[in-house]
Amino acid sequence: MIIHIKNMLSSRCKLIVKQELNLLGFESHCLELGTVHVTGSLSKLKWNDLKRSLYVAGLDLVDDKKRSFCSLIKYWVAEILGSEEEESDMNMSSNLTAHLNMDYPKISKAFAECNQVTLKQYIIGERVKKVKELISLHQPNLAAISSKLHYSSTAHLCNEFKRVTGYTPKIFRTNL
């Protein structure tokens, strides 16, 4: 289960949330500031207990299903991009459809309603971040990176990278 926490702005906040969830008997890990993945589900009573204890620490649980679903989409995008195994030859939309068990247009619409960008723009941005990370880790070549991230070609990767960052992967690599 993914929960959202308002005012979660630091590592200290992450620690407080983790401690409170542990006290309630749940394992958790922070996906990003403001978003926590909890193993299991919280009963109404435990939800209220957590809400009360976090409120004392200056944090607040967000009870918004749209935001929760958008975080789930972001989580799966990160999982798919970070996966070492080849997700067959399915593209991102097919993967999301399979993981979320919903039509891609509905997923995309829900994402766009609670974010300032479309799902496609978000995915492109995340892929470019992953390309930067792989280049920084001195991956052997762009062909391997483009294959790993399911780009149709190295040229496609380069064009998308330049469109988002303003410079080519080669220039990025030389400026490291």
Structure description:
The structure is a single chain. The chain is of the alpha+beta class and 176 residues long. A four-stranded antiparallel β-sheet has the order 2-3-1-4, sandwiched between helices. The longest helix is centred in the middle third of the chain and has 18 residues. The termini are far apart.
Briefly say what this structure is.
With 176 residues, the protein is α+β, with helices and mostly antiparallel strands. Helix content is 61%, strand content 10%.
Task: Annotate the secondary structure layout.
Blueprint: E1 2-6, H1 11-23, E2 28-32, E3 35-38, H2 44-56, E4 60-62, H3 65-82, H4 92-100, H5 104-114, H6 119-136, H7 142-148, H8 154-165, H9 169-174
Antiparallel strand pairs: 1-3, 1-4, 2-3
Largest sheet, in brief, is: 4 strands, antiparallel
Low-confidence stretches: none
Oligomer: single chain
Structural class: alpha+beta
SSE order in H/E notation? EHEEHEHHHHHHH
State the helicity in percent bands. 55-70%
Average pLDDT reading: 84
Shape: elongated
Alpha carbon gyration radius: 19 Å
How much strand?
A: 5-15%
C-alpha termini separation:
38 Å
Number of strands: 4
Strand order of the largest sheet: 2-3-1-4
Please name the defining characteristics of this protein.
four-stranded antiparallel beta sheet, 9 helices, 4 strands, alpha+beta, 176 residues
